[in-house]
Amino acid sequence: SGAPCVKIFVILAFVAILASLGSALFFLVTDRGQSKRTVKALAWRVGLSLTLFLTLMAGYYLGLIPGKIS
Fold first, then answer.
1. CA pair distance 24, 32, nearest whole angstrom
2. For residue 36, how many C-alpha atoms fall within 13 Å in the half-sphere facing its CB?
3. Is the pTM of this model over 0.85?
């Protein structure tokens, strides 16, 4: 079933990614394209997504995340 700390990390990472996406939308609407805050928020989202992906790959490689459910 995997380690509980990995599940908690994945959930927190998804929440952070969604929060960054929401803040980018907010900055896009309120700044009307006159600020770089939208770009920064989207860059954070990309970084968080990449970190989550690499963490999931490492967890699978280390056996913390099972490959097949039989």
1. 12
2. 2
3. no
The answer to whether 55 and 13 are in contact (CB under 8 A) is yes
DSSP codes of every residue in 11-39: HHHHHHHHHHHHHHHHHHHHHTT-SSHHH
Angstrom distance (rounded) from CA 30 to CA 26? 6
What are the pLDDT digits (tens) for 21-30?
Answer: 999 999 999 9
Q: Is residue 25 a contact partner of residue 41, using CB atoms and an 8 Å limit?
A: no
Spatial CA neighbour of 24 closest among 13, 39, 14, 12: 39
- Output the CA–CA distances (angstroms, integers) from residue 7 to 3, 21, 25, 28, in the order listed: 7, 21, 27, 32
Q: What is the CA radius of gyration of the chain?
A: 16
Do the Cβ atoms of 65 and 59 come closer than 8 Å?
yes
